[in-house]
Amino acid sequence: MKLLTLKRVGYKGGTWGVLFDENDPFCVTGEREWLNNKPDISCIPKGEYTIERTISPKFSETFEVMSVPGRGDILFHKGNIPHVDSKGCVLLGENFGILAGVTAVLASGLAFTEFMDRLKGQDQAKLVILEV
């Protein structure tokens, strides 16, 4: 099973990270701030999860983070600003930058395409989330 590791590296105005495919960093991430794992408004706890391929009515084909205590429908998807574009999901980008005056992940479409390409032929993968 493919191993993805999300290393969280910053926490001002959101939760910011770098996503690795094995040892290869390939995109950045943006999540909401930690608010005790509350549905729709918090990032998820650090730990180990399985992600599974799914079809979302809003985001089409993607991967869902499974078995998050008290949570569901946590997807990887396109978006820039966690407080605007995410309800507890993981946004993917090529780099960090400023958008509408706040920190954001940029070039999200490119990053999401690479994410899906790296998981081509996989229906599941292991996700490890670390606090650095």
Describe the overall structure.
- With 132 residues, the chain is mainly beta.
- Helix content is 11%, strand content 49%.
- It contains two helices and ten strands; from the N terminus they run E-E-E-E-E-E-H-E-E-E-H-E.
- The protein has an eight-stranded mixed barrel with strand order 1-2-3-7-6-5-4-10.
- A hairpin with a 4-residue loop joins strand 1 and strand 2.
- The longest helix is centred in the C-terminal third of the chain and has 11 residues.
- It is globular, with a radius of gyration of 13 Å.
- The protein starts with a strand and ends with a strand.
What's a quick, concise take on this entry?
Helix content is 11%, strand content 49%.
